[in-house]
């Protein structure tokens, strides 16, 4: 074994003393990188080269040996982040789609062109919005793999997302009456609660009594879609629905399953109660999420300003709320009338007593 120089390198070491196999250790952007080299002199050279590249900002960390398949890593990703995912069933559904399409390939085998081919085929089956959600999951998973050192680049980053056409469908008063007539009282309570709170499907069906403050008429959403805690204020109708729920002393969930041990599964409720009632009521092109649109639309049409609607809907930016702006005609008319009044005052100051408008003012 070669003699060591007098100067010690803190980043060059033997993992097993006396083995003659030397490793190097250094930092890249605050992250420790370890590599097995071999002979001591070679380890010192590699260490110095790596330190020089780090200083120049040109060092590219090589992926670790572990190279799982996409299916294996998506399962790992979901398990690791299960407690932080806002909609676990949706994430699992998207992960299942990716596993069926490219699951047998390793993370490093998948390239941008593979994803472009997938997107082209997928657009014949689902909407651009659905493709965007699937790409968003894969991009996040690859970012995590990049952080873990399993890959050196994210192939999803080069894929441009599609522009989405936001659909606003709300329930008319006549449709609401017909839908209420087509449902039993217990099932209608869930629909009416959505109409009066604007909660997202996952927020409502996963609601726990510990997050309900009946005394102050407030519901707390610990983890909303924006990733923040938000508070939803209850009107008299929504409060009465909660007070009438039979699960108050029997289950931790507001809308519980028959056993009370789990929340009511939204897909089961939709297939058994909501969608058949929509069909019986003769209502077309209407989904559960449209109850949330109805809540926002009625707020806007009743005179609520868009900032208030944004807060009540839990939108992170005003951009999402602007889709309801056209439903506030009274505010638009009032703004136009202000211009008319200002112009009228100016004309009244310059008009002759006969009431004729001077020719110069008509130009």
Q: What would a concise description of this structure say?
A:
This protein has 363 residues and is mainly alpha-helical. Helix content is 48%, strand content 8%.
What radius of gyration results from the CA coordinates? 31 Å
Q: In the CATH classification, which architecture of the largest domain applies?
A: Orthogonal Bundle
Q: Which word captures the global form?
A: elongated
> What's the total count of β strands?
6
* Global mean pLDDT: 82
Tell me what the structure shows.
The protein has 363 residues and is mainly alpha-helical. It has 4 domains: 12-56; 70-148, Orthogonal Bundle (DNA polymerase, domain 1), CATH 1.10.150; 173-327, hpI Integrase, Chain A (Orthogonal Bundle), CATH 1.10.443.10; 328-363. It is built from 15 helices and 6 strands. The protein has helices at 40-56, 70-80, 88-102, 112-122, 128-148, 173-181, 185-197, 201-205, 236-243, 266-280, 289-301, 306-313, 318-321, 329-350, 359-362; strands spanning 12-14, 22-28, 31-38, 212-213, 218-221, 230-233. The strands form 2 sheets. A 3-stranded antiparallel β-sheet has the order 1-2-3, covered by helices on one side. Helix 3 crosses helix 5, helix 7 (185-197) packs across helix 11 and helix 11 (289-301) runs antiparallel to helix 12.
Keywords:
disordered C terminus, single chain, 6 strands, three-stranded antiparallel β-sheet, elongated, 8% strand, DNA polymerase, domain 1
SSE layout and pairing:
Elements: E1 12-14, E2 22-28, E3 31-38, H1 40-56, H2 70-80, H3 88-102, H4 112-122, H5 128-148, H6 173-181, H7 185-197, H8 201-205, E4 212-213, E5 218-221, E6 230-233, H9 236-243, H10 266-280, H11 289-301, H12 306-313, H13 318-321, H14 329-350, H15 359-362
Helix pairs in contact: 2-3, 3-5, 7-9, 7-11, 11-12
């Amino acid at each position: 074994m070669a003699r060591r120089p007098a100067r010690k390198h803190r980043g060059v070491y033997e993992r097993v003393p006396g083995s003659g196999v030397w490793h190097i250790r250094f930092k890249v952007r605050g992250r420790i990188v370890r590599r097995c080299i071999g002979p001591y002199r070679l380890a010192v050279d590699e260490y110095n080269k790596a330190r020089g590249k780090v200083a120049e900002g040109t060092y590219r960390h090589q992926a670790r040996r572990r190279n799982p398949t996409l299916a294996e890593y998506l399962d790992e990703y979901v398990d690791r982040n299960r407690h932080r995912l806002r909609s676990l069933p949706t994430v699992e559904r998207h992960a299942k789609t990716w596993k069926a399409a490219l699951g047998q390939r390793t993370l490093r085998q998948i390239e941008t062109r593979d994803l472009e081919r997938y997107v082209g085929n997928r657009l014949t089956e689902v909407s651009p919005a659905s493709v965007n959600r699937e790409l968003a999951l894969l991009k996040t998973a690859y970012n995590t793999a990049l952080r873990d050192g399993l890959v050196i680049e994210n192939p999803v980053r080069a894929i441009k997302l599609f522009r989405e056409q936001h659909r606003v469908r709300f329930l008319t008063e006549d449709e609401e009456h017909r839908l209420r007539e087509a449902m039993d009282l217990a099932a209608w309570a869930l629909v009416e609660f959505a109409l009066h709170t604007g909660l997202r499907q996952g927020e409502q069906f996963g609601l726990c009594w510990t997050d309900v403050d009946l005394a102050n008429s407030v519901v707390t959403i610990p983890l909303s879609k924006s990733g923040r805690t938000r508070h939803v204020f209850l009107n008299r109708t929504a409060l009465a629905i909660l007070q009438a729920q039979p699960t108050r002393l029997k289950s931790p969930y507001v809308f519980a399953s028959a056993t009370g041990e789990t929340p009511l599964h939204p897909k089961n409720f939709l297939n058994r109660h909501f969608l058949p009632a929509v069909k019986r009521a003769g209502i077309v092109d209407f989904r559960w999420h449209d109850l949330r649109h109805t809540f926002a639309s009625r707020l806007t049409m009743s005179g609520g300003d868009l900032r208030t609607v944004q807060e009540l809907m839990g939108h992170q930016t005003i951009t999402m709320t602007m889709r309801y702006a056209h439903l506030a005609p009274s505010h638009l008319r009032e703004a136009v009338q202000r211009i008319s009044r200002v112009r009228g005052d100016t004309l009244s100051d310059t008009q002759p007593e006969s009431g004729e408008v001077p020719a110069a003012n008509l130009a």
